């Protein structure tokens, strides 16, 4: 399947790149976002990815496009990577979280339960594989992993089956694990493959995806110049909830403090929602690209220290995108 960047037009509406700006594409992947940003404005784009295959694609683009620079590494260490270029502030930051179409389509990467491959799931070139993680964790740890990172309701039942199976032989391929989960589960939601949530949990754990996201969120406000835009696309509720709560906590839309709870400092907001309502793909995009179905885009802008609260009823940058969708 060819690479189709999700919510591309909505991303461009939110990011709104301008000439002479510096924009970071923190999850280069197939380069769809970076190419679109370069085409939209005469700006500089810095791509980042920890996947060696994505880095190779990015370096090929950099060889042909002088306004693009490709870096290798995890986005949780974005400030360090930018500092190596002498950059301390940027005008835009976009990240398309989760696994890419390229990774899913390459059976040897072990991300997909739809193709036979080694149970790997590493986005980078180093670290523990999913097979090694399955072999190392005990039943209690596996249960917690599947329940917390996969939101799998039958986590304990699946963990017990894995421990019993690996006593007979190691679980080392995607089809081994997918078949075992399918035999073990008693209830499956219509339209969902039984192993979906187990594979999600393993992938998140192997790549420390939530930790990487937390580090990116913590760094973003100080990396963005006043007026800089933060655009994040999530694919499951664990990521989306983190993003929403983070922007709420730093925004001018934060909840009023309760007299029943400890009071927080009265620091001025650092972020403003571009639109608090989550942006989802339309039916047409989902029909063209089924993998876009679960995408959720949220976006905010960095406030200047003396900037006033956004006026009620202010126009949304997504209005034009909705009219075109």
Topology record:
Layout: H1 8-15, E1 22-25, H2 32-40, E2 44-49, H3 52-64, E3 68-72, H4 78-83, E4 90-96, H5 101-105, H6 130-136, H7 139-150, H8 155-168, H9 174-184, H10 196-207, H11 209-223, E5 224-234, H12 237-250, E6 271-273, H13 283-288, E7 296-302, H14 319-324
Helix pairs in contact: 7-8, 7-10, 8-9, 11-12
Question: How would you describe what is shown here?
Answer:
With 325 residues, the chain is an alpha/beta fold. It has two domains: 8-102 and 209-324, Vaccinia Virus protein VP39 (Rossmann fold); 107-207, Putative methyltransferase TM0872, insert domain (DNA polymerase, domain 1, Orthogonal Bundle), CATH 1.10.150.170. Helix content is 42%, strand content 13%. The chain has 14 helices and seven strands. Strand 2, helix 3 (52-64) and strand 3 (68-72) form a beta-alpha-beta unit. The longest helix has 15 residues, at 209-223. The chain is globular and about 60 Å long. The relative contact order is 0.14. Mean pLDDT is 87; it is low at 257-265.
